[in-house]
Design a protein that fits this description.
Blueprint (H helix, E strand, L loop, with lengths): L1 H10 L8 H9 L3 H8 L7 H10 L4 H4 L10 E3 L6 H19 L5 E5 L13 H14 L15 H12 L5 E6 L5 H12 L5 H24 L4 E5 L9 E4 L4 E8 L2 E5 L2 H16 L2 E2 L5 H28 L3
Parallel strand pairs: 2-3, 3-4
Antiparallel strand pairs: 1-7, 2-5, 4-8, 5-6, 6-7
Length: 322
């Protein structure tokens, strides 16, 4: 009975053109004949095989066999980061876990951008290095004395970061922003400048690269309007939640600490998250379809903030204020 229920659930998680036997054979890495014996109930799944199937197809055995309630879902959590080696491992682990989802043409990504989406700041430039610097400043207790000009990320860290960032380049993506989405980055630049750990030159260069990033995003709205959708929402506070959906799998990433996420693969929870995203889209302005005037107003407000920070930093440098 239990094996039959499990096989039925697997059938709900595969493409129509894929047979149950093929799916079980792939998931368990066993021969076609061995998979046939199990799906025809001539052989039983071992405990290990049942768990492996559940993990492969994101099936909750607790829910499936009535040992839990709808109020509880299983989650996994990314490991905590304490130094640059952990940061590199975070990039690599994230890449390996996201690749099977993001590498599919039918993948859809939804991003509630409280801050600039992580993927945009994983490039080989000063802004990317600064973001790593900030993360390590806050997470590595032995990193506090370093000035930004003294920070040189290891080549392997930069390569792992860029590899993860490249995953996000050509996806079917819907992001929700407000003009406050850039606030945390602006505050970080200003804070470390005032703390004497970021030079005037580097501060202004970071502001320049931030402008270039916004400019690239504005061009992406126009050039990839069918694959990249950018919504402007002035009412709701964003959450940095990320929802990834394919026909067979789904994952919801909910931040629980800096660079630490809870990963939820429960179908019901992901469906509720998708419905909430849809409500946010409904109450937002899709910049892909509005006129050039409204698009420019959105970007101009953020550009003004960056200019205001540049002027403030220059004035503080000239007057010697701290």
């Amino acid at each position: 009975m239990f094996q039959e229920v499990l096989i039925q659930e697997v059938g709900k998680n595969i493409k129509k053109e894929t047979s149950i036997i093929e799916a079980v054979s792939t998931a368990l890495d066993i021969s076609y004949d061995a998979a046939h014996r199990r799906t025809s109930f001539k052989s039983k799944f071992s405990l290990d095989e049942s768990v492996k199937l559940a993990q492969y197809f994101n099936i909750s055995l607790d829910k499936l066999f009535g040992t839990s309630t709808e109020k509880y879902v299983s989650v996994s959590r990314t490991t905590s980061i304490k130094n640059e080696y952990d940061l590199q491992e975070y990039f690599e682990t994230s890449y390996n876990s996201l690749l099977p989802l993001l590498d599919r043409k039918d993948c859809e990504v939804y991003y509630s951008a409280k801050d600039i989406p992580l993927f945009y700041t994983l490039k080989n430039n000063k802004l990317s290095s600064f973001k790593m610097y900030v993360w390590l400043k806050l997470l590595d207790k032995n990193f506090r004395a370093y000035k930004f000009e003294e920070f040189a990320p290891r080549l392997s860290t930069l390569q792992s970061a860029q590899k993860l960032g490249d995953l996000y380049k050509d996806l079917n993506t819907s992001e929700i922003w407000d003009i406050t989405t850039i606030n945390s980055t602006l505050k970080q630049i200003h804070f470390y400048y005032k703390a004497g750990q970021l030079s005037l030159k580097d501060s202004l260069e970071l502001c320049k690269e931030l402008k270039e990033l916004l400019d690239d995003i504005s061009k992406k709205v126009v050039s990839k309007k069918h694959k990249f959708k950018l919504y402007h929402n002035e009412l709701l506070l964003m959450s940095n939640n990320v929802l990834i959906i394919t026909p067979e799998q789904q994952s919801l990433f909910v931040p629980c600490a800096m660079l630490s996420y809870l990963n939820i693969r429960d179908k019901g929870t992901c469906l509720e998250a998708k419905q909430y995203f849809d409500k946010q889209f409904y109450h937002s302005r899709l910049l892909n379809t509005v006129g050039e005037k409204e698009q420019n107003q959105f970007y101009y407000k953020m550009m003004q903030k960056i200019d205001a920070l540049c002027d403030l930093i220059k004035a503080q440098d000239l007057l010697g204020f701290e």
